[in-house]
Amino acid sequence: MYISLQHLEVKPVRFKVEVPAGEIDYDVSVTQASQLNAEGTAQLLSRSLGEIRLEGKLDVTMDALCDRCLESASIPVNRSFDLVYMPAEESRSGEVEIDQAAIEVGFYEGSGLELNDVLREVVLLSLPMQVVCSEACKGMCPSCGENRNLHDCGCQPQPLDDRWSKLKNFRTEDSPRN
Ligand SMILES: [Zn+2]
Ligand SMILES: [Zn+2]
Description:
178 residues, alpha+beta, 2 domains, six-stranded mixed β-sheet, two-stranded antiparallel sheet, binds zinc ion
């Protein structure tokens, strides 16, 4: 759905969309696992500055790889958003002042906003820094690479001081003149 300045100049635009998985291209590490539902309102805050405010909420389930075991992990995203978009040219003039720190600000090019681009951004900003399939995930074995949630490979943990003892040997071999 394209939200054009032309429409916003007449009246606020209400949106309610159901975006099927596959329509929005996120990036290689996350995929949309369910339909994305979003609804809200877009309005022109300032006609002269071209500031567009988008308020709404969305819910979707995303799939990402667990940081510990690299299996797929399900991430439910359910949040409201309140964003202000300004024309990209305004940002270059350096005279933009944002009073409301709570509101996130983005920029748009041309004569309006593609709603899917906004939703993509909101989803990506909502993803946790660390993705885990479950808090109890045991991760991969650093020795054999086995997923320890599925099998107990029985590897002994690596001694922690291994690299330091190697370094010590290297030093003694390499510095006979001292
Ligand atoms: Zn995991
Ligand atoms: Zn192992």
